[in-house]
Amino acid sequence: MTNAMTTSAQWTLLRPSALFGALRLALAALAVPALVAGCSMPRSAALESEVLRGTADPANEVQVFEVTRASLSVLDDWPAAHPELRHNWRSTGAAPTARIIRAGDLMTITVWDSQPDSLLTTPEQRVVNMSNVPVSASGRVFVPYVGEVRVAGMSTELARREIQDRITPIVPDGQVQLGVEPGAGNTIDVVTGVARPGRVQLPEISPTILSVLAEAGGISASLRNPLVRVNRAGVAMAIPARELFSNPANDIQMRGGDRIVVEEDHRNYVALGAAGHQQVVYFEREHINVLDAISTIGGLSAARANLQGVLILRRYPSSVVRPEGPYPREEEVIFSFDLTSADGLFAAEGFEIESGDVVLATESSLPLVAQAMTVLRSAAQTVRALTP
Q1: Which of 116, 155, 228, 353 holds its CA 20 to 30 A away from the CA of 75?
Q2: 237 - beta bridge partners?
């Protein structure tokens, strides 16, 4: 009986210390996995190693291209991932041309004749005024005693001479005056992107595109990096507004039937990872390089970003993928940049972002280690607090 009581007392005395020892072991056992699990803690981006894991395997069909100053010349020969009609302007300067008569125009034909026995005039009225004479679909107008006269494709002065020549055998002393009111074929449609969209009549001397835009109230100030498009006889031309304004040679002459559309730049890229902002970013100017893209989103996070792991993800159409030559090897390409070296910085400055790109700033592993160490410190403090 006495031995049993002694054993029970010893067990009672040892029980608390045994409990704390077991607790220490348990916390220590949990601390090691916590360090390993640091990489899976909440964060805004993946590590570069995580993104590139497995890309060396051809089965993954992802090409990784390290961009340096030397490799930029190779990329210059690559096709665009998403080609877009943005600059095929026919810069011809601003040489003025006379308006051409087209079907649908209305003509006012005035004939003066001083002869008393004139076929067209009377002694009291020495002038005949034929107004609103339409140019037919075949490009002709009807003149009394003369018949149909083809005038389409002529300037107003050439058409006047043609009618004068045709009417002279009938009215030898007659003099012809001609006025033309432009029809639908001699108008310019300013469709959208200006203060006052609408139809602008072509004057006698053809205007330039800047004159037409000014008459329509100018390009809307709310448009982001506006692009000017002109549709002419089934052919589309385009030019960024900044380039149109900056070079007088781009101020082309307008023709009847032209259509002007001014639209804002819809190109964009996606910014993700350890940067100031994670969002869809629209192009504010025509050309944006990697450094521009990073600065636009508030730069890289000083506490979290891996400067050696800035990645640009781009998807190419299958039609431009080739196993050889200046083409991407895979549809999905990852361009990597090291911004800790002069070579990498200049390479980033020379690499242009394309619409649809993903700019990914990967996480540095150091903050993750720091988080894991914080977990260990917390665990150690808990153990010390529980130790009697």
Answers
A1: 228
A2: 230
Give the model confidence (pLDDT) of 137-157 as tens digits.
Answer: 999 999 988 899 999 999 999
Q: What predicted TM-score, i.e. pTM, was given to this entire model?
A: 0.71
Q: CATH number of the domain at 106-182, out of 3.40.50.620, 3.30.1950.10, 3.40.50.2000, 3.40.50.2300?
A: 3.30.1950.10
Dist. CA 226–CA 261, nearest whole Å: 10
Report strand pairing: 358-363 vs 268-273: parallel
Phi, psi of 227 (to 5 degrees): -115, 130
Q: Model confidence over 5-60: pLDDT tens digits? A: 444 444 444 455 555 555 555 545 554 554 444 445 566 678 888 888 878 787 78
Looking at the DSSP bridge assignments, the partners of residue 310 are: 337, 361
Residue 204 — pLDDT band, cuts 50, 70, 90?
Answer: confident
Q: Which residues contact 372 (CB under 8 A, 6 or more apart)?
A: 34, 35, 37, 38, 41
What architecture does CATH give domain 187-263? Roll (3.10)
Token pair listed for 262: 């001014």
Task: Give the span between the Cα atoms of 292 and 340, in whole angstroms.
Answer: 17
- Residue 254 is encoded by which pair of tokens? 């307008």
The CATH number of 48-82+267-365, from 3.30.70.100, 3.10.560.10, 3.10.129.10, 3.30.420.10, is 3.10.560.10
Supply the pLDDT for residue 7. 47
